[in-house]
Design the sequence.
């Protein structure tokens, strides 16, 4: 049973990593869109 628990914990860590990467990517996308829309402010 410990093998399955380890696999689940690894999946949870991977899910957290993917969520953090998605948030960073969306933040970067929003920043780039804002710069394209109003370049004089940056």
Sequence:
């Amino acid at each position: 049973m410990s093998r399955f628990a380890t696999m689940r914990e690894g999946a949870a860590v991977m899910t957290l990593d993917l969520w953090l990467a998605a948030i960073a990517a969306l933040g970067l996308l929003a920043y780039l869109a804002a710069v394209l829309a109003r370049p004089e402010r940056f």
Notes: Helices lie at 2-37. The CA atoms of residues 4 and 11 lie 10 Å apart.
